[in-house]
Structure formats: structure tokens, C-alpha cells
Amino acid sequence: MTHPALRTVAALTTGLILMAGTAPALAQTVPPPESTAQAAALQARGETYHRAPDTAQNPDELAATAKLNAMIAAHNEAAARQEAEAEAAFDEASARYRAEAAAAATLQANYEADLRTAAAARAEYDQARATWEALIRACEASGRRDCRANAPD
């Protein structure tokens, strides 16, 4: 059994390690409150962002930005094409499924109709056979010898 103080120290150490690993990420994603407040104050006074003309900007930074923008646009176009292809493939597969399901439903309905027809024919045959057997029994009971001449098929 560990001492409660050791468990507390271990928990604090683990928490500090986790916080140390996430602190740089948090620092990069959350703007400091002063800059947000400053931006809000500037916007409240009517000031807005204005892009400097290309002549006033660093040419290397402009080229890097243009290259990144082109890469992002190409990536977005490729993703849009891929999404359109996937959607078309899905629509085609859905249409094929619906056609196959309709064909299967037709086959099932035909099978069930054939089954009902066969059952009705069997019932008719069984009734005819029972009637014939009753006639044969009656004929044989009368002493005749040619009773089986007209057997049903």
C-alpha cells in the first residue's frame, strides 16, 4: 500500500508533465487577452485591417504565400474531385442496389405465386386421388375385378 502523500506527489507530477506538454500548443492557439482587447478597441474606433501593397511587402514572403495558397487550392480541388467521384460511385452503387432489390422482390413474388399454384395443384390432385381411392374401395367391395382401370395420373 502506498503512502497518501506519495500518491499526491505522483498525481501532481503527472499533471505537471501533461501541462508542460500542452502549454506550447495552448500558447499558439489562444491569443493573449491584451491583443484581443486591443483588436476590439481598434475595431470599435472603426479601424480595420488593410493589406499593404505588394511593393511594400517582402518578395520572399509573397512568393512563399503564393506557393502555399496554390498548394492549398490544389489540395482543395483534389478533395472536391475525390468527393464528387465518391458521391457518384455511391449514387451508382445505390441505384444498382435498388435495381437488384427490385429484381429480388420480383423473383420472390414469382416464387410465392408458383408455390401457391403448386399447393393448389397438389390439393386438387390429393382430392382427386382420395375420390378415386374411395371409388376403388367401393368397386372392390362390390366384387368387380376391373376396378383399377381408370387410375388418376
Count the E strands. 0
Helix percent reads over 70%
Which residues form runs of ≥5 with pLDDT under 50?
none
Order of helices and strands: HHH
- Overall SS class: mainly alpha
The number of distinct helices, counting runs of at least 4 residues, comes to 3
**Based on the structure, what is the oligomeric state of the protein chains?**
single chain
The N- and C-terminal alpha carbons lie at a distance of 91 Å
- Structural Rg: 44 Å
**Biggest sheet, in brief?**
none
Strand content: under 5%
Q: What's the mean pLDDT score?
A: 82
Describe the global form.
rod-shaped
Verbal overview:
- This protein is mainly alpha-helical.
- The protein contains 3 helices and no strands.
- It has helices at residues 4-29, 33-44, 59-141.
- The longest helix is centred in the middle third of the chain and has 83 residues, at 59-141.
Outline of the structure:
This protein is mainly alpha-helical and 153 residues long.
Summarize the topology.
Blueprint: H1 4-29, H2 33-44, H3 59-141
What would the keywords be for this entry?
153 residues, mainly alpha, 3 helices, rod-shaped
